[in-house]
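Workshop exercise sheet. Pairs work together: one partner reads the sequence aloud, the other fills in the structure field after running the prediction. Swap roles for the next sheet.
Pair: D.N. / O.F.
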Amino acid sequence: MPLPKQVRFVTTDCYGTLIDWETGAYEAFQKEADRDGFTIDRNRCTDLFVNVQREIMSGSYELYAEVLRRTAVRVAQELGWDLEPSRSNFLPASVPRWMPFRETNAQLERLSKKFELGILSNIDDKLLGSTRRHFRVDFDLVVTAQQVRSYKPDPAHFKECQRRIGGKTGWVHIASGYETDVVPCLQAKVPVIWVNRKGRELGPGDKKPTEEVKTLRDAAKLLGAA
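Structure field:
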C-alpha cells in the first residue's frame, strides 16, 4: 500500500508523535514522589505507564483524565511508592506542561502549507485543548477518544476521520505508536508513516507500515513538505 500520489489530508497522533509525553509524565511522577522522598526510575516508570494505561483503556470507556488518575495509582503501587489515591490528580494536571518535540512546530507549519491537517488522539477534549496551546498551527480536524468514546487501537478514530473527510482518498496518517496507530491503519488500508524514534525492531509477525522514518521531519520530507 504505497503513499498516495496526491495527498490532500494528513493526520497525526499527538502524544509521542508531536508531544514528548514520556518526559512529561516521568517529570510529573518524580515531582510528586519528591514530596515523599521517593526516587523513580524513568525507564521502569515509562514501561509501567504504557502497560497499565493500555489495560485500563481496554475496559469500558472513561475520560482520559480518569484513566491518568487510575494509572498514577497503579504505577505507584508497582513501583513500591505508597501514593494516596486522593493525590492522583497530579498526573492529568501535568498534561498542559508536556512539551512538543523540538522539531514539531516547524514541521507542522510546513505540512499545513501543503495539506489539511488533523489530530487523532487518545485523550479528552479539555486536556487536548491545553496541549494545543503549544502548537503554532491550527488543525482542520480533531478526533479525540472522548468524541468517539473509545481508545485506539479500536478503529473508531479512523472511521470517524474517514467520515468527516469524505473517504480515504489522499489521506495519510503519521504516528509513533505501532500498536495504537500503525496496526489499525493497516487494517483499514489507510497509508501510514511510522515515526520510529527509538528504532524499535518489528517482530516476525508484525506487518510493516507504508513507510518508516526516525523523525517527524523525515515524514514531512517524504510528503514533499520539508
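Discussion prompt: The first strand starts at residue 9 and ends at 12. What would you look at next?
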